[in-house]
Each structure stands twice: as structure tokens, then as C-alpha cells.
């Protein structure tokens, strides 16, 4: 009988999709029977994965199956700022259902381990009760992993709120972290978001291992610090397995309007704007971006969606109203060199297209790795969570991005059209910054692909991970 492996992603399309890709990577040798426990999103209207995608995985011969956990309605409708509280309470409410699912699986399969998304680590309680070892999967950067491991130490060392500090935060393996790049929900220790995140980080030390979606060549300093125990000075660090880049690749559909339009554009001439599965911007900011794009003179493809409040992440984005959201006449004036797509776009397919020369991105880690996988430089526009850290790393450490200089991370003012124009010109034009970012993106592309090939650093980490998982099948 094959060893059973259960993967538990956090809710949301990005978390589930990368967890599925991780399952495919781990089970390349078909040595496991993998079950993915999927959670519906607590945010109404947020999709998980298309049924056709799940069916294609089930038919792939990789012995990967899906089991949906019950849908639970949140007992209260939280304020927009309480999104982290919503997620933490929702996942906690699923622990008994995870335990029941594991019991059913154990009746027919020897479940040797759980692989749990770091946002869902509360469900490790269910595995502990059943004697199943748990591994934590960090779908984000090595920098964030180092920060998370070190946060309990920072919490003990720094008595004040982080927002009251006057100097950068020092974390082993990371460049000094300016306070403005810290996730906004973590700046005040009394906040619900901080308390939840701190408790989440404390669970890492007790995991059987930590799987992280990055690769040694991209983030060498922090991975060395993590593996060497410098980020967890008061406890042995679990084995760390950098198996990335794990990216979700889609098949190109030439009939899709975005792809058909790109097919008619010159190579490397189009800047692509997309802000993730949940990202939206307030209407005044959308208008400034439109004016900046128009003035830049560059070709563009812009995936734009909206929600009633750009800060309310308890509501899913909806299709944009191009007439109402954009400056009057903008679509008509730019129709010869731009396409505004008012809904979710096939991001990896677009990034893989030869017409794409740059990416204005919210810098979610999935999007970051996808852009680097195809060697596309980035103009960072972080919106929330750890995206500011990712943006800083892309500009300062990796070098594959051009900074949007006047980005106001406190959210107190708009990024004006003039700065948008300047950023796009610097990214897409023949500037020293643009050339450097393009060169570094191409280097990252080559390094990432080499890492996952036989003999590469991530391939070797995957071999170690597989043997570690199978060691529990004794």
C-alpha cells in the first residue's frame, strides 16, 4: 500500500493552486497517494479551483485526489479591518472536520504525514490527536519565513510596538527591514492580527519539517540563516526544504481575447498590470494609473477589477465598470496600443507571452515567482500583507524590479499619474534601471529553472523531502 500524504492549503485560489502544484512536484515518482483537503473561502464569491482543473488532476495518473471540507458560514460579519480575525476563526472552526476527514482516510490508507499551509496551522491539532506528523508549507518567500521564525524573538526583545521604533528591524539573513515595509497588521502588538500571526509563527518550531516555495540561488543569505538556526535561536530548527520555484502553469488558449490581442503586439513591448486574485484599487487611484499609462506612450494590458471598498477583503472583487471607473474616453483614446480587461486574466499565460516586457504587480509571492520564471521584470505595487517585503527584496536584493519611488505605503495619498508614467517608462524604456532589472530577471529565470532540474538545489531538496516523508511509513 502506498503511503498516504494529506495536503491542507489555506482557503483562496492562490493558496490552493500552489498546494496542488506542490502535490504534483512531490508525487512525481508516484510514491504517495495524495489527498488535498480543500476549504471553501469564508469570503463570499471567492472561487477555489475550476471543476475542470480538479478533474484534470484526478485524471493525470499522479494519484492526487480532492476532498472538500464542509462549508461553514462565519458566525459574524466582521469589519473590513478584521480580515485576519475572520480567517483565524474560520480555520479554527474546521479543526473537527479535518479530524473527521483524517479518520475516514485512515480507514483505508496509512496516512504518514500532513503538509499544512502556514495560514492553516491551527488544523495541526487534528493531526496531533491522531499521531500524524505535520510539515508546514510556506508558499511565500524565504525572507518571510526568516521573519516568521524570528518574530517570537523580536517580540521578546522589543517591548514597544514596532510602529514606535525609529530604526530598521534587524533579522538574521535579511537586509535591514524598514518599518514601512513591515506588514501593516503587525505594527501594533495589541492588534488581533499581530496576536494571531505571532501564535502562528510559534508553531513552526514544532513541525517535522518546513517546506518553502523558493530556491537557494534566489535567497541564499536567509536560507542559510534559517537552516543554520539563527532565525530560531532558542529552539532546534526543523529541517528546511526549499523546493521552489513551484509555479502554476496554464495552457495557452489562443482564442482568449487577451492572448489574441498580445499575438498582434511586437515582442517585449507590452507592460502587463494585474493586482492578484483579491487586489483592487480605489477609483481615484485607478484614474491616475490610466492617465499615467496614456502619457507613457507604452503598450499595455491591464486586468482591472473592483469592489465596493478597496480595503474590504471580506468581499470578493467583481468585474470592473470601464465606463464608470476609467477617465472619460480613455479606452477609445488608447485602443490602438492598450487593452483593458475588466476581469481576472490568465496571468501565467500572459507572462509567458513574448509580447510582455514588464509587469506591474502587487508582488504576491506566487505572482513574483511566475514573473521571474518567465524572466519578466517588475514594477512593484504592493497592496497588503507581506507584499511590501517582497517588493523591497525584488528591488534591493534580487534586482529584478524598478522601484516606484513615490509609493506611499501608509496609504495616505495617491500615486499620481506623473509617477506612474515615470515608473512605466523606467521599466519599459532604455534606462539603466530598466536594463538592469531585465538582466536580473533573465538571470533569475535561468537560476530557477536550473534549480528544479535533476541535480539542481531544489531537486535535491525535493529528494530529501520525499525520503523524510517516507521515513514515517515504517
TrEMBL record:
Example of a GO MF term: UDP-glucosyltransferase activity
Keyword line: Glycosyltransferase, Transferase
EC primary class: transferase
InterPro entries: UDP-glycosyltransf_plant, UDP_glucos_trans, UDP_glycos_trans_CS
Enzyme Commission (EC) number: 2.4.1.-
Gene3D superfamilies the UniProt entry points to: Glycogen Phosphorylase B (3.40.50.2000)
Family matches, as SUPFAM superfamilies: UDP-Glycosyltransferase/glycogen phosphorylase
Cited PANTHER family: GLYCOSYLTRANSFERASE
Family: Belongs to the UDP-glycosyltransferase family.
UniProt protein name: Glycosyltransferase
Source organism of the structure: Aristolochia fimbriata (White veined hardy Dutchman's pipe vine)
Taxonomic path: Eukaryota, Viridiplantae, Streptophyta, Embryophyta, Tracheophyta
Amino acid at each position: 500500500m502506498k503511503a498516504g500524504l494529506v495536503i491542507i492549503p489555506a482557503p483562496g485560489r492562490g493558496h490552493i493552486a500552489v498546494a496542488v502544484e506542490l502535490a504534483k512536484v512531490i508525487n512525481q515518482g508516484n510514491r504517495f497517494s495524495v489527498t488535498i483537503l480543500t476549504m471553501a473561502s469564508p469570503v463570499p464569491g471567492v472561487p477555489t479551483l475550476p471543476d475542470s482543473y480538479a478533474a484534470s488532476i484526478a485524471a493525470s495518473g499522479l494519484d492526487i485526489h480532492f476532498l472538500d471540507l464542509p462549508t461553514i458560514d462565519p458566525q459574524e460579519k466582521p469589519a473590513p479591518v478584521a480580515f485576519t480575525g475572520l480567517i483565524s476563526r474560520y480555520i479554527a472552526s474546521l479543526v473537527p472536520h479535518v479530524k473527521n476527514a483524517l479518520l475516514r482516510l485512515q480507514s483505508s490508507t496509512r496516512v504518514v504525514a500532513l503538509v499544512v499551509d502556514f495560514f492553516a496551522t491551527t488544523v495541526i491539532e487534528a493531526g496531533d490527536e491522531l499521531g500524524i506528523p505535520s510539515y508546514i508549507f510556506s508558499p511565500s518567500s524565504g525572507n518571510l519565513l526568516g521573519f516568521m521564525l524570528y518574530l517570537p524573538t523580536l517580540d521578546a526583545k522589543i517591548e514597544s510596538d514596532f510602529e514606535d521604533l525609529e530604526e530598521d528591524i534587524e533579522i538574521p539573513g535579511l537586509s535591514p527591514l524598514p518599518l514601512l515595509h513591515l506588514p501593516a497588521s503587525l505594527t501594533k502588538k495589541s492588534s488581533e492580527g499581530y496576536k494571531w500571526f505571532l501564535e502562528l509563527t510559534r508553531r513552526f518550531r514544532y513541525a517535522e519539517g518546513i517546506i518553502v516555495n523558493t530556491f537557494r540561488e534566489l535567497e541564499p543569505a536567509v536560507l542559510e540563516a534559517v537552516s543554520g538556526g539563527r532565525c530560531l535561536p532558542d529552539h532546534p530548527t526543523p529541517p528546511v526544504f526549499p523546493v521552489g520555484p513551484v509555479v502554476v502553469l496554464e495552457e495557452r488558449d489562443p482564442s482568449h481575447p487577451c492572448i489574441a490581442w498580445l499575438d498582434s503586439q511586437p515582442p517585449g513591448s507590452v507592460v502587463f498590470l494585474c493586482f492578484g486574485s483579491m487586489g483592487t484599487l480605489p477609483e481615484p487611484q485607478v484614474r491616475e494609473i490610466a492617465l499615467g499609462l496614456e502619457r507613457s506612450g507604452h503598450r499595455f494590458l491591464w486586468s482591472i477589477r473592483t469592489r465596493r471598498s478597496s480595503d474590504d477583503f471580506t468581499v470578493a472583487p467583481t468585474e470592473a465598470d470601464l465606463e464608470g471607473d476609467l477617465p472619460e474616453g480613455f479606452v477609445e483614446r488608447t485602443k490602438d496600443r492598450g487593452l483593458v480587461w475588466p476581469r481576472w486574466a490568465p496571468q501565467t499565460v500572459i507572462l509567458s507571452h513574448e509580447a510582455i516586457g514588464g509587469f506591474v504587480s502587487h508582488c504576491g509571492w506566487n505572482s513574483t515567482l511566475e514573473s521571474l520564471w518567465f524572466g519578466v521584470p517588475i514594477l512593484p505595487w504592493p497592496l497588503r500583507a507581506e507584499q511590501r517585503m517582497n517588493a523591497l527584496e525584488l528591488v534591493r536584493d534580487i534586482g529584478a524590479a524598478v522601484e516606484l519611488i513615490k509609493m506611499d505605503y501608509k496609504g495616505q495619498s495617491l500615486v499620481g499619474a506623473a509617477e506612474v508614467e515615470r515608473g512605466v517608462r523606467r521599466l519599459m524604456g532604455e534606462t539603466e534601471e530598466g536594463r538592469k532589472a531585465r538582466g536580473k530577471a533573465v538571470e533569475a529565470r535561468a537560476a530557477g529553472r536550473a534549480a528544479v532540474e535533476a541535480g539542481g538545489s531544489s531537486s535535491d531538496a525535493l529528494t530529501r523531502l520525499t525520503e523524510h516523508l517516507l521515513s514515517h511509513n515504517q
